[in-house]
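User: Can you help me understand a structure? I only have the sequence.
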Amino acid sequence: MHLNPERLLILQAVDDAGGVLAAGRRLHLAPSGISQHIAALERETGLVLLDRSRRGGQRPAQLTAAGRLLLTHAARLADVIADAEADIQALTGQVDGPIVLAAFPTVIARLVVPALIDLTHTNRGITPMVREINEQAAIAALHGGDVDVVLVEDDTAHPRTPDPGCAIRWLLDDPYRVAIPTSWATPTSLADLCERPWVDGPPGSAIGQALGRLRSVAALTLPAAHTCLEFPGALALVAGGMAAALVPDLALTYPLPAHVRIVNLADLGTRRISSLYKTRRNQPTPVVTALLDALAAAAYPST
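Assistant: Let's start by predicting it. Here is the structure, written out as C-alpha cells:
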C-alpha cells in the first residue's frame, strides 16, 4: 500500500473547511478534483473516509472513524511541512508567500492600504489579498483557514476575548464623534440630543455597544430611529436631517457630506481596532507576523 501525502493534506483541508466545496476554494482546486483525491485515497487505503450521507444543505462534511484516524497522521504531516518551511525561511531570511486579510470598509483606505504598501515594499515575495466581508464570516474563515488575519472592531469598554487558539493584537483606539444635521442647534452635551432620533448599529456591533453604553452611563434615551450596517448610510441619514449618528474618526472623510456637522462632545468613548490571528503550532507564520507588524506601524506611523 502506498499513501499519497498530498491526499492526506487534502483530507485535512476537507475536515478543516467543513466540506469539499470550501476545501476546493482554499486549495484553488475544483470540487470534482477534491472528490477525486478523496476517492483515490479511499482506494489506496481500502477504507471509507468521508460520510457521504451528509451531502446537501448546509451541513458540514463529516469524516468516518477511519477518516478521523487518518486525520491524526495528516495533522502530523502538516506540522512537519510547516516546520520545514519555518527552517527554510530562517536559513534564507526570506519571508514570502500569499496572505489573506479580512477587513471592514472604514479601515481599508486609512490603515490597510498603507500597511500593505509598506509590507510589499520591504517583502517583495509576499502577495497580500484583502477581503471585505462581515466580521462573523471573516472569523469563520479564519478558523477554516481561508483567512490569515481579521481586523475586528469593539467598543473599548467591551474588550474582546479571543477564541481558543487565537490571539488579538491591539492596533488603535478610534475616537467617536457625533454627526448631526446642520439644521439642528449645536448641542453642548448629549443631554441636548436625548430625545432626537439616532442611527443605531446592528446587535453586537461596535456602534450598537457604544450607544448602549452611552444610554446606560448618561441615563439618556437616545432613541434608535434607524439601523445601518455601514457609516456612509448613517451619514446620508444625517445629511437628510433624519437623525444624529455616532461616527468614529476613521469613518469621516473631508470635505464632509453636505448638511452634516461633526460635534466633539465629552465622554463619547472610542472603538478599538485590533488584529485577530491564530496561535497554534508554527502560527503566526513569518508572513503573518510581517503583516501584523505592518498594520501596527500603519496605525501609528512615525513622523
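Now, to help you interpret it: The beta strands are 97-103, 126-132, 149-155, 166-181, 198-200, 224-227, 244-248, 260-263, 270-278. Residues 65-92 form the longest helix (28 residues). Let me know which part you'd like to focus on.
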